[in-house]
Amino acid sequence: MGKKIGIDLGTTYSVVSYVDDTGIIVNVESSEGDKTTPSVVFFDPNGTDVVVGSGARDAGSMNPECLVERVKNYMGDPNYRIERNGTEFSASAVSAIILKKLITDAETWLGGEDIDGAIITCPAYFGDAAKNATREAGENVTLKNGQKLKVLRIIDEPTAAAVAYGNSCNEDMHKTVLIYDLGGGTFDCTIMKLDFEGSDKKYQVITTGGNHQLGGKDWDDALASYVRDEFCAATGCDAEAMKDDPECAAWFSEKIEKAKIALTQKQSTSLTPSFEGSKAKVEITREKFDEITRGLFDQTIYLVDQMLNDKGMNIVTDIDEIILVGGSTRMLQIEEGLQLHYNKPISKFDPDKAVSNGAALVASGASLEENLDMPPVMPAGGDAFGGFDSPSLGGGSTFEDKSGNTNQIVEVCTKSYCLRYYNGGKETFINLVKKDEPKPAIGTTKTIIPGLVLGGGDSNGMTNEVALLIMENDSRDDHVERENCVELYEEVPIMLAEPVSASSQVEIQLYVNISGELKLTLIETATGRQYEMIPVRKGGDTNSIGMDAATGFTLVG
Ligand code: ADP
Ligand code: MG
To answer: Ligand 1 pocket: which of 157, 324, 328 to mutate (most atoms <8 Å of CB)?
Structure first.
């Protein structure tokens, strides 16, 4: 038996953990001796080599055009391509390179032991396409034994963090917690209910929110702009020209983050930039840093409040504790600010390893053959013409940890999924499964054939062709407007076995499994005949673009 590992594939930093035979969580050290690896790839301009991690950062300071960073922001985006040395790569292919480095380092760290499988985490806001791109990136990594990596499951980062937290708690508890995850490029907030009794631990996600364009990088940018302005005020240099200078930008990207991190330890630090022959020392105090970044912190508060409001929840009465996750919560202003604003107990435990540690715990108890199958068709629900029903399934998944606890994890759908139908010829969208419904989830509606195809039917009103269209949205309403939906899936055409009258009734079911994968079922009411299909993502298989090249590279550095 080899090891099952947990991988936090971060926007800016990635971490790998596993649970050893005695039940202790171990963080893998990279070949550079770090416990976190920058999620950065350097494509050697002369050949087939790539460098990943801190080595890539160093190499990239000379050739920034060969560097690829923050690819996670584009996972599952069919239009994203990055071209390096004449080859195009999808975000999934670049992620496969990062994962290859993480896996190679883990294999070295583990000595002779094999890696049996991995759980990879992703942000709660990731939809089906982004999750799938993550899974495919992992499944394309070749292990040293020649086999492909087995991706046991994709789980949400806040869930993983909560499991790591729960693992450290040995008393019974019933708490609702806010998980505040501020990473390098994203801010994720989640409300979770934790019910621990004896050896039964239940983790139930209530809702999620955040902004995936807000993270530690914005704090860096604010600091960079302050340092540039101070420098230019002292030297008379032009701040815009300085900003546009690639060498200067590379210097800033290296030094600013270090200065920010130094301010976590010290009250003040300084930087001495030089530009066009001028040189000047700029002092940065923690107070100044907090002042210039207060607006960024306030944005996170706004997002938390918005998430609570949407759910009709109140921080004072409904939240017992705040759990800090993500490297950026090491900035002292975060804890201080949250304390001041919310006045709730705050737990902080290894914020940049909580996610991978939690994933490792789940992986250690996960079976290698997980059953993600869809359940049998449920009894019909919902009315004709736009009524719907979503009988609660939501049992989530269960794993047993090394201490013998039974852990039940219930995650929610982070998107709503709507079905198009025609109401008297008018295109209408009904949400079959809504955001925050516990997974697995099922939603059903009844309609008549013309509700599914516009103007269908021959001269006798008979048809055997229907077309189903599912779209993703963020609304919790029953009906949604087309402009608020994202068309991620192709229209699914279905040929019925026999032509039916255009007024015959059908039931449509949408099922979302615990991994967030979708399945559609159409049931003819009269005959009970069923047709099942998996919605196909739009843009075809874009994840595989550059995948062969990506997996063929030699990792160096
Ligand atoms: P992600 O999951 O988005 O990749 P992480 O959770 O690993 O990100 O956090 C990375 C961010 O945390 C970076 O912006 C980094 O600068 C910041 N960070 C790490 N350590 C510290 C520290 N001691 N003080 C301030 N910021 C830190
Ligand atoms: Mg993270």
So the answer is: 328
Mean pLDDT of the chain: 90
Q: What is the pLDDT of residues 293-302, one digit of tens each?
A: 999 999 999 9
CATH superfamily, domain 388-533, is Substrate Binding Domain Of DNAk; Chain A, domain 1 (2.60.34.10)
Q: Closest-lying ligand to the alpha carbon of 13?
A: 1
Pocket, ligand 1, Cβ cutoff 6 A: 10-13, 36, 183-186, 215-217, 257, 260-261, 264, 326-328, 330-331, 352
In 332-461 the beta strands, taken as DSSP E runs, fall at 346-348, 397-400, 406-410, 416-423, 426-433, 441-448
CATH fold for domain 216-292: Actin; Chain A, domain 4 (3.90.640)
Gap between the Cα atoms of 54 and 12, Å rounded: 11
Residue 507 backbone dihedrals phi, psi, to 5 degrees: -120, 140
Query: 4 CA to middle of ligand 1, Å?
Result: 26
Closest atom of ligand 1 to CA, residue 182? 6
Q: Which CATH class is domain 171-213+297-348?
A: alpha beta
* Tens-digit pLDDT profile for residues 449-487: 777 776 555 667 788 888 889 999 999 999 999 999 998
Each residue's pLDDT tens digit, 500-527:
887 888 899 999 988 888 889 999 998 9
- Tell me the two tokens of residue 430: 């009904």
pLDDT at 387: 59
